[in-house]
Amino acid sequence: MKSTDVVASPEQHGGDGSLAVETRGLAKRFGANVAINGVDLLIPRGCAFGYLGPNGAGKTTLIRVLLGLTRADAGTMSLLGHPVPKHRDVALARVGAIVDEPRFHGHLTGRQNLQVLAAAREPAARSRIDASLERVGMLQRADDRVSKYSMGMRQRLGVAACLIGDPELLILDEPMNGLDPAGMHDMRDMIRSLVAEGRTVVLSSHLLDEVQRTCDAVAIVDRGNIIRQGPIPELLAGTSLTLQVDCSEPDRARSLISSTNLAATTIDVEGDGLAITLPAGTSRDVFAEVARVLVTGGIAVYRLEPVQASLESWFLQVTSRLGDTA
Ligand SMILES: Nc1ncnc2c1ncn2[C@@H]1O[C@H](COP(=O)(O)OP(=O)(O)OP(=O)(O)O)[C@@H](O)[C@H]1O
Ligand SMILES: [Mg+2]
Known about the structure:
Layout: H1 10-13, E1 19-30, E2 33-44, E3 48-52, H2 59-66, E4 74-79, E5 82-84, H3 88-92, E6 95-98, H4 110-119, H5 124-127, H6 129-135, H7 151-163, E7 169-173, H8 181-196, E8 200-205, H9 208-214, E9 217-222, E10 225-231, H10 232-237, E11 241-247, H11 250-258, E12 266-270, E13 273-278, H12 284-296, E14 301-308, H13 311-325
Parallel strand pairs: 3-8, 3-9, 6-7, 7-8
Antiparallel strand pairs: 1-2, 1-4, 4-5, 9-10, 11-13, 11-14, 12-13
C-alpha cells in the first residue's frame, strides 16, 4: 500500500458529509519545523480511527488545526462535511474534543464544571449532564471537587464534557495518557460503545498496541507525514507472517526447509523449533508443504502455527525501512 492510499476515496463519498474528517494537502510549520507536511486524511463516519505516531509527530498540531485553534499554512479540510474554518461554528456544534489533556476548574465539582461548559452551548446541553456523567461512570463522584480526581477520572470527565454536546464526532488527544491498565481497558470499552452508537471517535496515540485494540482504522504519522493509512485488517494483510513450528531436531529441520525452493524470507531456529518468515499473502498450501517436507524428512512436528505480524511490528518494519532509505 502506498503512502497516498486512503481509507475511502472522496469519489465514494462525493463530499456529501459521509466523511467525518477530510483534509487535503494540509500543512503547518513552526519556523523551520514542519509539524504537518501535506497531509491527506480521510476518516469515514462511524469508526474508531487512530492517529498514531511517536512524540513530536504532529498529532496534537493536527487536532489543533482541525479545531481552528491554530491556523493551517496550506491545504483544505472539512469536519462532518462542513468546510472549516469557513463553517467552523456549524461543524464544531457536532464535535466534542479533548486537546492535550482535559482542563477543568479544580475547585469546582465535576458536575459544576460541566454546568459551566453547558452554559456556553445550546440549551439542551445542560439537560444531558447527568446522562453524560452516568455514561462515563462518574455519577457517583460528580459532586466531588475535580482537584480530588485521579487522572483516569479526569479523562472520564473529559469524555463526559464532550458528550453534553451529543457529538457526532469525538476527537480525543491521547485519551489513554496517564491511565493504568484497568483505566485503559475502561476507556477502550467506552470508545467502542460510543462507536457502537454511530459516533465517530478519532484518537491520537503513541501507543501502538492500544490503537490496534481500540481502532478500526489508523493513520501512522511520523515527522508530520502520514506513512500509511487504512483499515487495520487491510494494513496487516500487507505484512509478512511468521510460521512457528515446534519440532524435533530444529537444526536439521532448518537445513531441510532451506534446501527446498520455499519462498521463505528467513528461517531461524527458535527454542524447540523454527520461526519461518513468509511474504505477505503466502497461501496456506505453503504451510502444508513445510509440514510435508519435515515429516518426510523424519522430523516430528508437534505444532505449526501461522502468526500475523502485529501492527506494532509492522510499524517498526515501516519506520526502519524508511530509516534505511533516508
Ligand atoms: N506552538 C508551537 N511552537 C513551536 N513549535 C511547535 C508548537 N507546537 C508544536 N510544535 C512543534 O511541532 C512538532 C509537532 O508537535 P506536536 O505537539 O503536534 O506533536 P505530538 O505528535 O502531539 O507529540 P506528543 O506525542 O509529544 O504529544 C514538534 O516538533 C513540536 O516541537
Ligand atoms: Mg501531542
